[in-house]
């Protein structure tokens, strides 16, 4: 049976998602208006939302539902 390769992330998920969003926004700037540009911007927004959600879920003020 093969063992899975595991490695420790050196950068947090929030930072990786924020960096991906930044990279996608920069890529979208160089694209002409159209479906490809809109898809790239949509992916950037999704990465930003994921980053914010992860930060929110890790926040110390988050309380479990009653």
TrEMBL record:
Organism superkingdom: Bacteria
Identification of the protein by name: Transposase
Phylogenetic classification of the source organism: Bacteria, Pseudomonadati, Pseudomonadota, Alphaproteobacteria, Hyphomicrobiales
